[in-house]
Amino acid sequence: MLLAVASPHEIRADIDKSFYDKAAATVWGMDLPQFNPDTDLSDSIYKDKGAVFIARYRKINAFHDESTNVMKELITGYRNNNAINAVDFDRTMVKILDRSAIDIFNSVTVPIPKKNEVDGYTLMSVRPAFGARLIKPDGTVENINMDEALTVTKGKNNEDAEYKIAIPGLEPGVILDYFYYIDYFMEEQSLPAIKIDFFKPYPIKDFLVEISSPPSLALEYANYNGAPALKLDNTEGGVNHLSLHMSGIEAIEQTELFFSKARQMPYLYIYILNNTGRLGYVPKSARPGGVRTIIPAQLLQDIACAIKDGKYPKKSIDDAEGIMKQWKKNHPDASEREIIDAAYVALNFSCMKHNEKLSDRQFAKSFSRLLENISTVLPGRVAVTSPRSAAPVDRLIHFNDATYISVAGDSCYFPYKEPLYVPGEIPAGYDSEKAFRFEGAPYLDNLHSVAHPFTIPRSGTKDNITETISNLSMEPDHIEDLTITTTVNFTGSWKNILASAIPTGDIMAEWARFLGQKEPKGVAERNKENEAILQRKEMTKRAEIIWNCDNPKLISFSTPSLGCTPDKPTATLVISGLVPDMVSRAGNDLLINIGRLTGKQLEVKGSARKRDISIMQECADQQRHTIRFTVPDGYEVIPESVTSLNKTISSPVASFIVSAKVDGRDVVVQLVERHSVAVAPASAWPDILKVFDAAFEFNSAVIAIRPV
Question: Of 130, 181, 193, 383, which residue has the fewest beta carbons closer than 10 angstroms?
Fold first, then answer.
């Protein structure tokens, strides 16, 4: 029994207690008058709130170490250090005013330390710490004891994944003063990107930001969506000191429904770059040290350099070229577009066959090279864009933040990330977004001089469809289970629902079929029995989603089409099973809850029903459902239960239509829910909300039958 109970010190073997104490001494020892527990909160913006942030303080100090290092010279051949040492901490003081706010603050997570060494020489270390204290209404201060509050969450291979820290004792009137602290050491590398957001669910009285960076490092940043710019205060001691101070920031509701933090909430995005670093790629166009905001021309220069300097996966390109030569012989009448689409499949197939995992930049450049090698009339060109979950491409500040794609004619070819996409399909979040196309071949030095802006093609409702066709039958003496067979067709972004349930070997086999190739040895010899066991678990999860139920008894499933090749762009799933709790009794009548077969629909409630910012969905799309229920012998349908289902809601942005009828012994219900635009103004929200409400209400729809 004693062996099963580890002491706190054994559980927290990786916690550097002295480092946590040092961080706390640094933060608590700073003289910051804004962190005053007795601060006046009488302003109207703090009234009737669950909590108020009395103050937030973000401090980033970066140093550039270029001193002589004999040990580094022995290991790497470089005599001098070229490291960034930095401290980044975020201190917050919040007053709890209502019990509704306690759950937000009663626990936090802290990342685990990271370290990278070569032959005992440290190249990178990231050491996080956390501290908190409670200030009671009577003025007493209680420090949170990390030994008692901290637990370790395990990840893969039973390794520490994160630290979870409980904060007990929160009550209305209590003030929580806490900080996150990170110490960085990055040898020959840049700091990771730093994001400072200005939106919180409760108002903020004072928000201060201070950043110090030496002139040998490049501090490049952007302010988004109304966030203030940093002010360069001075250059004392040869160091750039920047700051900003905001007061009286009103609460911003962080709704999770159809909005993009990157496009609709104020924040700063900052890079502190060591552009003389020799670990990691630095483009030739990188700027020297200093403070600056980046303009599109500078970004495009960096991107052009990164494209030109990128490596080709020679083995995969050569293999794909050979496949395409044979494919063109086998398809002498193929159009230019069909050839380019087949080349896209061939490159994906070859990369996976040779286990060459490419970044999106590498893939875009490689696809351009492949089209050149097989002599297509339309050249493949590299382009960059950005999804709605990130800043627009012309507001990015780092070449790695862009999404790299290929363009041939008027079609866009996105890197292989979702396995069931076919050539030319636009992934969710990218349609109608800004982009830049580099007109030259991706190995040209002057690539940046011919970057033309364009817009990613719009993805309409016809491009992103989920269609279900369900046939229901039942035995009146066994109403606990309803037998259902459903065929589901997915196109576009809806195929993501199915993607992770399809074994990679099946996708490779389908690509091989399309290309006229043999299955690679590893695919042909894979353990299909184990795959089938895992796939049944995944398909059961899909059945729960499609039938909106718990623990269905899956009888069979099949995927007649995977939707990953140009000749079969629609993914099809057929599932059959027994679904519990879909039939209930009302006296002698039976009620069949057919509304569940549209899947679990979104319920919009509470503060989310009001909206004053634009709506950003991933894409325009539609759901189409056909439900056919066969009335069992000895029963008849109650007509009113069918006719009452008919409904039509229509607007330019969204529509919901139900058509129900009796067809002999069958009841047939057809439903269409359509969202016509991905981005809509706040004024369209009432029309969109009507559709969501109708879809959620339909989840409870029933057909009633009675004994004859």
Answer: 193
